[in-house]
Design brief:
Layout: E1 2-9, H1 17-30, H2 35-46, H3 48-55, E2 63-71, H4 75-87, E3 95-104, H5 106-114, E4 121-123, H6 127-135, H7 148-151, E5 154-155, E6 158-163, E7 183-186, H8 192-205, H9 216-228, H10 238-251, E8 255-256, H11 259-268, E9 274-278, H12 279-289, E10 294-297, E11 302-303, E12 309-311, H13 313-319, H14 322-331, H15 335-343, E13 347-348, H16 351-356, E14 366-367, H17 369-373, H18 376-384, H19 389-393
Parallel strand pairs: 2-3, 2-4, 7-8, 7-9, 11-14
Antiparallel strand pairs: 1-3, 4-12, 5-13, 6-9, 6-10
Helix pairs in contact: 1-2, 1-3, 3-14, 4-15, 5-6, 8-10, 11-12
């Protein structure tokens, strides 16, 4: 489903270099001493607002259109981001921008783009889904190097939402496979949240090494470990395989196609004892349905979820929207966008913003897809491809 949001489009071109430099310095200060790779990211971030000022100098048409194909739970996030981005244009050209949003399970969304949905940008739940679009010839190789942090402007993690008082005493991953425990989770064949949840459970049971990426030291340690990882013993962990088989066949009564559907099933339809989902979805349930009904449980460790973004090259070159699309994605790294990210319970890359909201986004030991599993290509082939582990172990109820 595509939703349309119309905003006044003002020129971003005349934003002053003084403002640009000030905003850039805020990001640069937030990321000191991260090593060469992260220093380059800080330089990228420090130049973003100044880049906007030059990128869209040419007069634009009266109405520009941008289709963002995103994963399931980001409706609220991009509604806010779109409005902020539009404000950056409004004072100059007097034109308007029509934002179109499409949301659904991340893997299904990637398939829709491959099958012809004319996305200018994709903001999906995991790198594999954008890799699939790249392999279809719609996105040029090297897209992860075009923006800081492998083109992931924010992160998240996977946690538990339980009913008030935690009647089943759910505290750790192994508790999810206990008798008489029902867990609501998205389908890993269609949903990014479902895949991150699968990998979080598998890695935690296997004892994956964790870091604290909310600190500069932990971030450097995590990045270095990911770069040097060569062996991935987690794949051969028998206990983790047994836990996964038990979990999906005995503890999961229904697999929703996306993260938002899982939240609705648990919170509104009152099915299950635990919701296993994105952190922002857990907070959404608290905000929408009341803290008197649910509570969040953070397990001892979890996975660092990194949702990436990319311009769909073939589409923007055909539509003539490349400058707008690139500016839009770069805007996600600016201080005001990062503040919005944190307010909506995603984890911003801006360390200052993350620390500001630490009461709601507490530090938690996290393992990474790269260090633990060798990246998304390996993980997909081992777990989620046709005939891979999930297909072999899952026996849907008849």
């Amino acid at each position: 489903m595509i939703r349309k949001f119309a905003f006044s489009l003002g020129g971003f071109a005349a934003i002053s270099a003084v403002v640009a430099a000030r905003q850039g310095r805020q990001f640069a200060k937030a990321l000191p001493n991260l090593g060469a790779r992260s220093f380059r990211a800080a330089v990228w971030i420090s130049c973003l607002t100044l880049w906007f000022a030059a990128a869209l100098l040419p007069a634009m048409s009266e109405e520009a259109k941008l289709l963002n194909v995103s994963y399931d739970p980001t409706r609220e996030l991009y509604t806010e981001i779109n409005a902020l981005f539009a404000e950056r244009y409004k004072s100059h050209t007097g034109a308007s921008v029509l934002f179109e949003q499409s949301h659904g399970g991340s893997s299904k969304q990637a398939r829709s783009v491959i099958d012809g949905l004319q996305a200018d940008v994709v903001t999906l739940a995991l790198a594999w889904d954008i890799i699939a679009i790249e392999r279809a010839g719609l996105i040029k190789p090297g897209w992860q190097e075009k923006l800081p942090y492998n083109s992931c402007p924010y992160t998240s993690t996977v946690g538990f939402l339980v009913r008030k008082g935690n009647p089943k005493n759910i505290k750790d991953w192994k508790d999810l496979t206990g008798p008489n425990v029902q867990v609501i989770v998205a389908n890993p064949k269609t949903s990014g949240a479902g895949r991150w949840a699968f990998l979080a459970l598998f890695g935690a049971v296997a004892g994956a090494k964790t870091h604290d990426p909310s600190t500069l030291e932990g971030l450097k340690e995590s990045q270095a470990a990911a770069r040097t990882a060569r062996d991935f013993p987690v794949y051969d962990n028998a206990e983790a395989r047994a836990a996964i088989e038990t979990f999906y066949n005995h503890n999961v009564p229904v697999l929703d196609t996306g993260a938002r559907g899982a939240t609705v099933t648990f919170a509104q339809k009152q099915l299950g004892d635990v919701l296993l989902n994105w952190e922002n979805e857990l907070w959404l349930a608290l905000d929408e349905f009341g803290k008197d009904k649910f509570e969040i449980v953070y397990p001892p460790s979890s996975i660092l979820g990194e949702p990436p973004v990319a311009v769909v090259d073939e589409v923007v070159d055909k539509k003539g929207t490349r400058d707008l699309a690139e500016a839009y994605l770069k805007f996600l790294y600016t201080s005001e966008a990062q503040e919005t990210v944190a307010q909506l319970h995603y984890r911003p890359r801006d360390v200052d913003a993350l620390n500001k909201y630490s009461a709601e986004l507490p530090p938690i030991p996290l393992f990474t897809i790269d260090e633990t599993y060798g990246g998304w290509v390996k993980a997909h082939e081992a777990f989620f491809a046709g005939g891979a582990l999930f297909d072999r172990i899952y026996r849907p109820a008849k």
